[in-house]
Amino acid sequence: MIIVLLGPPGTGKGTQAAAICARFGVPHVSTGDIFRRNLAEGTPLGLKAKGYMETGELVPDALVLDLVADRLKEPDCAGGFLLDGFPRTVPQAEGLDAALAAAGTPVDHVVLLEVPDGTVVERLSGRRVCRSCGAVWHAAHNPPPGDMKCPKCSGQIYQRADDASEAVLNRLKVYARQTGPLVGHYDARGLIRRVDGTRSPAEVERAIGAALA
Ligand code: AMP
After folding, report:
1. Residue whose C-alpha is closest to residue 39's, from 131, 150, 165
2. Contact 80, 160 (CB under 8 A)
3. From ligand 1's centre to the CA of 85, what distance in Å?
């Protein structure tokens, strides 16, 4: 099963990705996570991506396509995978189409999580994340411990640079301009499964389950 998870930042893609992957037994391929890992480790790839990531701009397509091509060659992707945060531009989608056509395994579903911009800004500007295990809090609705130490793994809880309000607004603009056209790209192939992402995570998970049944 090959699934693409599409939607603006802050729609709960990471949370839902974990549930979908557990259900279908496929690996979670998140380009954002791969870049963040490289950034934390100070690799050449991380250094190249740093400036783009911090301002909410997209990393150049060629860099992303190479990285994804390498990841999809790993043995755990042989039986399918879930793509989260990729593709993000039409050239990336075309690159993916070409690679999958060559392998004879096209995309099965594109789940489009829909959340209004105002909700995205509210969710992301309050988001706090554990640097080590990725656990998530919200400054107002689910505040992290005062010492900013993760109760699950003792990692440091922080605010992603790209979750600062200005960067969030830029990410939404970038999404509308560069990623929005992918809806048409996949709609033309009958692959889009629209899901209302404003509901609770459990309700969204059920709706995705129904859409992929
Ligand atoms: P995300 O966690 O998916 O929001 O990704 C965080 C940041 O990583 C993005 O704002 C981009 O700078 C970069 N990034 C992740 N995936 C891609 C992609 N497919 N194309 C270009 N840049 C990406």
Report:
1. 131
2. no
3. 6
Q: Determine the number of helices (DSSP H) and then strands (DSSP E) in the chain.
A: 9, 8
The DSSP result for 35-79, as a single string, is HHHHHHHT-HHHHHHHHHHHHTPPPPHHHHHHHHHHHHTSGGGTT
Contacts of 120 (CB under 8 A, 6+ apart): 8, 9, 10, 11, 168, 172
The H or E element that residue 181 is part of is helix 181-187
Quote the ligand 1 centre to 53 CA distance (angstroms). Answer: 7
Tell me the two tokens of residue 25. Answer: 């037994």
Distance CA 195, CA 208 (A): 7
Residue type, 92: Q
- Domains of the chain by start residue, with CATH: 2-26+79-212 (3.40.50.300)
Tens of pLDDT, residues 102-154 = 888 999 999 999 999 999 999 999 999 999 988 899 999 899 999 999 999 99
The catalytic position among 13, 71, 123, 128 is 13
Sign, CA dihedral 156-159-162-163, equals positive
- Which pLDDT tens digit goes with each residue over 33-55? 999 999 989 999 999 999 999 88
Residue 189: active-site member: no
- Determine whether the shortest distance from the Cβ of 68 to ligand 1 is under 6 A: no
